[in-house]
Write a structure and sequence with these properties.
This protein is an all-alpha fold and 104 residues long. It has four helices and no strands.
Amino acid sequence: MSGWRRNAAPRASPSSPPARSAPGSVYTDRLTATVTDRLGADGARLTGGELTPELLRDLPEPVRHAFRTGVVDGLHGVALGTAALCAVAFAVSWLVREVPLRGR
């Protein structure tokens, strides 16, 4: 049984894009858009790979500022989307008809 892993999830092929949740997708797209707007093609290249805090510290201040702004813009989009979803869910909850429980 060498190489067998119990309860292992199937691995995605290297050519398939990683699965993302909707908030994660909004965050990533807004981060990439902001960094690309501020840094041009270099920003798109930087957001495509792994950027660790150590690597980010070594980058020039304008690049770090662009990433800070991108993170804030990304989180802002996620927060606004979540607030809108909560407002819609709250409004829909008022449309649910109340059904009294059976008495004994």
